[in-house]
Structure formats: C-alpha cells, structure tokens
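Entry type: protein chain
Record version: 2
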Amino acid sequence: MLVSKKMLGPSGPTHWALSIAQRFRPRKHHEIDPLPEYAPGFGEVSAFISSDREGGLFRRFRELSARNLLYMQSELASLEDDLLGMDEEDTVETKPLQRMTNETCAVDWDTLRRVQHIDERQRRRMALILEIRKLMKEYRTFPSASRIMHGDISDSVSTFQAGDSSRGS
C-alpha cells in the first residue's frame, strides 16, 4: 500500500500508521497470533510494519530513484564528452613538447600523476578523471533501472546510502 499525502491527514504519518496498526490488531487469539505489546508510538508502528512482508507502508520512491539514475547517466555522459573533447584537443596541439606530454599523459597514469603538478592541462585532466571515477563508483552501486521500475530496491538502496553521502543525490 502506498501512503499518499491524503492518507496522512493533519495528524501526520505516525497517527495514520498507529490507526492502521490498531485496526489490524488481532481481536481473537484463535484467528491470528496477537502482536506483542509495545508502547504506543514508533515502537508499536515499527512492530506492525515489520510484520508486513510486503513493506507496504514504506514508499519506494521509484520515480524519484529513476530520475536520479537518469541524472547520474546524464552527468556521466557530460563528463565523458569533456574527456573526449580534451583528447580531441590533444591531437591538434601545435607545440611538439606539449603534444608529446598530452599524448603520454593520456595513456600513462604515472606520468599524468607526476606532470599534473606542473601542467595546468594535466591537472584538469586528472581532476576530470577522478570526478568520473567517483561518479562511476556511485553509479555502479545504485540500483539498476529494472530493479527501480519493479520496486525491488530495498537492499540496494541501503547499500547505496551507506556509501559516499557527499553527493547531493
């Protein structure tokens, strides 16, 4: 069951969830095993929610997750274009020494790492590569599009959120 704003009403989600928990509290011992007694509030609500195998009280945020995934893809594509543009600029460099440095840094990590401290272009290349690496890691730990669309994202989302939280996702 997806909780809409109308369902929450003026009392907020806790009141709504408590009323649901009370409505489904077993009335007779022979019908269903009663829920253990919990103090009113989040303890009782969490006991009720955890008894529901479908997790129907939690929003899945599928649309928001899919949009976030699309933004990450778009951001990665933009960064890829920047890197390819930098590679293309390297091929038209007219100064032989700079061209050789560019070509070497484009294929040799150790040279790029050393030269970035004295060459502004290579510093930008290194920063771009590291930004791509960070976003690729985040993208690869994000739930797949098919899992988002089918709502099967609970395990991956907790893994994703436990990762780098410095991004404004």
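Comment: Residues 1-11, 154-169 have pLDDT under 50 and may be disordered.
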